[in-house]
Amino acid sequence: VQLQASGGGLVQAGGSRRLSCAASGRTFASYIMGWFRQTPGKEREFVATISWHGDSTLYGDSVKGRFTISRDNARDTVFPQMNSLKPEDTAVYYCAAKLRWVEPIVASRYDYWGQGTQVPSPQ
Question: Which of 107, 76, 73, 109 lies closest to 93, judged by CA?
Fold first, then answer.
C-alpha cells in the first residue's frame, strides 16, 4: 500500500488542523492506520492509531483529549483532527499502515509509511 500524507501548514496557537493520509494499492480496510510525529534529534513519537473499521482508537498521552483520529474506508483516507494546538505539537507527521493489531503504538511494528507532512510551530 502507498500512503500520501497532506494537510500540514501554518496554524494559530490554540487552533485546529486536520491532516489526511490517502492510501492506494491494496484494500484500505485491511490496514490499521497510525500516525506518528518526529522532531529533529528525537525518536518517532506515537500520536494515534485506528483499527480497520474505526471501532478502536488509541492516543498518545501528549495528544489525548485534543486529537481525534477517524477514517473513511470508502475514500481510503484517515484523518487526524488536531485541536488546541500547542508549540510542542510542532513536528513532521507521518501516517503508517499495518495489518495486525499487535503493539499498535510502536513505530517499528508498522510496515508502510507515508512521506510526512510538516506542522510548524503555531503562530
Answer: 107
